[in-house]
Fold:
Amino acid sequence: MSFSGNLTPSEDVVRDSREQRCDHSEFIVLMADDDDDDYILVKAAFEASPIKVDVKWVADGQEAMDYLLQTGKYIAHKTSPRPDLILLDIMMPRKDGLETLKGIKGYPYLKEIPVVLFTSSAKQEVMHCGFKLGADSFIIKPHSMDEMISIMGHLRDYYSGIAGLPERI
Structure:
């Protein structure tokens, strides 16, 4: 017995779930990374997206926590809307990515935001530690723009359409 006639093509399923998820105008990504070149590449990769992605950038883990907790220069809600996804570098000054991840997962209203460790480190012990602290994914930074566009496209499609995300508060 064949069920293929009853199935919606996968492209339509992704589009339908994206439309259901996007009850607001854009998908917001908070990127915490001390390398502004990486931010420029990620932003450019998301700009190639068919859906609007707003990349908010902070330079370290302490600034990420200020953003998420709406303290310091991020006290006004308009300067720090709740992200749908957090991209977190591991090696950063002041507060590294693992400390920041631990801080994020320590707040009930933040812990449900997906956190992707986005790093140049391929060390297994770092990966295991990240997952133990609550990371949702671990991505090694690509070396080319084509790879970056592909990775960010898959990430965007997964978190903005396939995965169920919590409502923004």
